[in-house]
Amino acid sequence: MKLFAVAALVVPFGLDLFVPVPEGNPVTPEKIALGRQLFGDTRLSRDGTIACTSCHDPERAFTKPEAVSPGVFGRRGHRNAPTILNRAWGRAFFWDGRAATLEEQVVKPIEDPNEMDMPLSEATRRIGLPGVDIANALATYIRSSMAGDAPFDHYVNGQRTALTPEEQNGLRLFRGRGNCTVCHVGPNLTDEKFHNTGVAWAPAIESDGRYGRFVDEGRGAISGNAAERGAFKTPTLREVGRTAPYMHDGSLATLEDVVDFYNRGGRPNPNLDPEVQPLRLPGTDQRALVALLRRAFNGRLSPSPAR
Amino acid sequence: MTTPTRSTIAAVLAAASVALGSAQQRSQAEIDLQAAIRTESVNGDLAAAIRQYTAIVNAHQSERAVVATALLHMADCYQKMGDAESRRIYERLVREFADQTEAVATARARLGGPAQPAARSTRGDRALWTGPEVDLFGTVSPDGRYLSYTDWATTNNTMIHDFVTGKDRALTANRSRYGEFGESGWSAISRDGRQIAFQWKPAGTDDNELRLSPLAGTGVPKSRLLKRFTDGEAPRPFDWSPEGSWLAVLLERVDGGSTIGLVSTVDGTVRQLKSIDWRGVNKMVFSADGRWVAYDVATTDDGGQSEVRVMAIDGSREHIVVATGTDNRVMAWSPDGNLVFASRNSGTLSLWTIPVRDGMVSGAARLAKENIISPWSLGMTTAGSLYIWKRASTPYVKVAPIDFSSGRLLDDDSLSSQTYIGSRGRATWSSDGKSLAYISCGSQGGGPCALYVRDMTSGVVSQARHSLRYLGFPQFSPDGRRVVADGRDSKGRSGLFIIDVASGVTTKLGSVDVPGLGWPEWARDGQSIRYQTRQAGQRVVIERRSDSATTREILRIPAAVTDRVRFSPDDRWYAYMQSDTAQRQSKAMVAPFDGGEPRAVLTAPINGIGFHFVWLPDSSGLLVQRRDATSHPESWWLAPVAGAPRKLDIDVTRWHDGGTFAVHPDGRHLAFTAFAGNAGGEIWALENFLPVPVAPQSR
């Protein structure tokens, strides 16, 4: 049975007041401050050039404008750096959900050879803190990093002028014909589940995809479930207007590309989520969706980003 | 910050397990009784259940409580089968088992007699009120005198029932069931008994409101707008904080999720506590000190497993107080700190209490009352009586021969199916008349819904698979291979769906996300589906080609007070029901589909025409429910397109008001939904089950 121990945090308007916090890692101002400091500390990387902020830039809603961010010695992985915002409400971490808690998640990029390539024992020696303290502080800082108070929040709470008419049309499509809320639901605009939209599918030679392959197994590699091959966790859409590029591999450069991708029904593949169907939205509707995504979910970050 | 340790929780659960275990030390008679109940309610085999109950009555005569329960269930089985033997058994219970007060009270309610108030000191249950209007959308006042509810049948008003005088009072001003001012929903009476909070949807808008009204006085009081929800959220008030400053509310959002929250009764400020999925919660209650709210939440996709949690009203803490189990539900919070919950973990639906201090479990769960009749709590009085709602009797589907020339239903007791349907019905015939489809949505009607298809030749009933959580009003395609229905999928999204009866493949109709969507039916050609929407207060019918997904508007009715539109089988006519509040009349209207003025084929006093109606197979007229001034019972009328309407000689006093009926294509049989006993619901008070005497100050 999982129990929640919760401390008060500054929760932006539009988000749930209840913030799940694990029993063993209560939130304290000191721990947030330490985590913030460690988040920008390049000593956590083998060559001393990479910090968490290198890929999760606070000035860009904790993302980086590259499909795949460079790690130590210029090495590159194969996935896009997602935002860390509102992960306090997360139920699985990383694009493939391979970490169950934030405390488990935060040490993996430190140890990943393509990212920071730093064994936790070495990080402990350099920082002068036990590994568990490093993990707890980083997790607490991420847990305290929130985004809300966006035009969308004011609109749904009764301020009808908070969205432009075009954005309102976009929201109607978002909830209706666009079928976006099938995955992007709730205050954090994610169901925290895994879906195959076809981004990881390479159709190869045959146009019907019979001889295609998944270039990234995604959730399937973690769960061992063949039906989950090519599935990735639904990301939040908070701050989505300033977190390009998009998708788990950063392969779509703009919001227009994203809307166009879904309007065409994703990319057909053996595991395509049945909810992903051609939308056949006219251009005006596509533009309305883009208008919504570009501004409506961008709001206030709490606490203010570390520099 | 304080939280219980895992060892503390483990100890509490272990203690609860011991209690559960001791409760399971039953006699052979009790074991046999549970087996028979399973046969009745799970397997739906009423005949076999009757045999089991009979054996129990004969074999265990000395165990009067068990025998009385067995007799009660046996009578219920006979009632579902339309067998008059049921009445004889109820009468025997009343006559021979006076010491079994709960069973006797139920039998009396089944017999339709007045509820028998028991003295306050009586230990047990009291049946307080039964009738077609009795619902579960309100709460009881702290003194137990009043109950709020919604009058769905006649006015859509928020109502108050006075248990002392037996009188009802409207708190909103609608005069017809079309809700000319708006539609009511859930309501909750304040802890001091002076105010009521209720959900209100103003007519002609998609907004929802929370409103407050005083309970004192007479007539319709002036209500105060507390909060208007403009983004389509439906606010469901559950409880008032003890000092009256907050409402515990569930907000059902348009994106398919829901949020637990508090709404300030001072300025309408919303405190958004926690977002959960579309299934929401069954109940929220404040603790006696007002610092916590308890709620139940589903933990499995099918909703069968749930747990009870307690959250601080500032959202700072949350604790699980009852771990995942079968049908764990919050019922009330007693003033001494015991949380009262229902659970089926012990095998039967039972009431438990568990001490909760500072939001955390502080002792062992205790079985307070076994085998309660319903998990729908309407709140607890200051005297410790728990008021609950239950359905008065089970609806089921019947098919009976009907002779329209003589206006008589020939065999009122013929039975369509003994398959236990729980609730709903909503039968529909295939165009060749060989198949009858109907739905069952659980004992309370909220789903999940099963779709059954009966082969009228062989009598075999098969369950048609589908992937929906809830089905509204299914309609067969002309070829009988598909069903179209409004409904909700497993993610809680509403829409129109087509179900392939053979394969179970369920397809959502895209591009139909419009307000007021509903009432889908197939066009004659079987290639198009017609559905209805609401636009600027008008009823609009859209036809959608199934092959191309192209849509076109085929009809627009400018009157603001129409229900569904139905087209005649030959497509020459359409019909709808209309309330004329100025003339205080309800009218069944018919108009030529290719143009021409509508005309009334049947009139009645305001509210006097029922919700459902059908065309006769030869398109010659309508079969319509017409209510008398008292709204119940209905009479049935044949309203021809040409000619005078005439009343049919059909007794429908025990027919399901919310159910539909369908005329067989041969025009000689009628499928309809009937209640085994009384229609509507029952209110019961469960008393003297708390572990310690209850002091005043809370409910």
Q: What does this molecule look like?
A:
- The complex is a heterodimer of chains A (about 300) and B (about 700).
- Chain A has about 300 residues and is mainly α.
- Chain A has helices at about 30-40, 50-55, 100-105, 105-110, 120-125, 130-145, 150-155, 165-175, 220-225, 255-265, 285-295, and strands spanning about 145-150, 195, 200, 215, 230-235, 300.
- Chain A is globular and about 60 Å long.
- Chain A starts with about 30 loop residues before the first helix and ends in a 5-residue tail after the last strand.
- Mean pLDDT of chain A is about 95; it is low at about 1-5.
- Chain B has about 700 residues and is mostly beta strands.
- In chain B, about 15% of the residues lie in helices and about 45% in strands.
> Largest beta sheet of chain A, briefly?
2 strands, antiparallel
Distance between the termini of chain B: 29 Å
Output the structural class of chain A: mainly alpha
SS summary, helix count of chain B: 6
β-strand percent of chain B reads 35-45%
Largest sheet of chain B: 5 strands, antiparallel
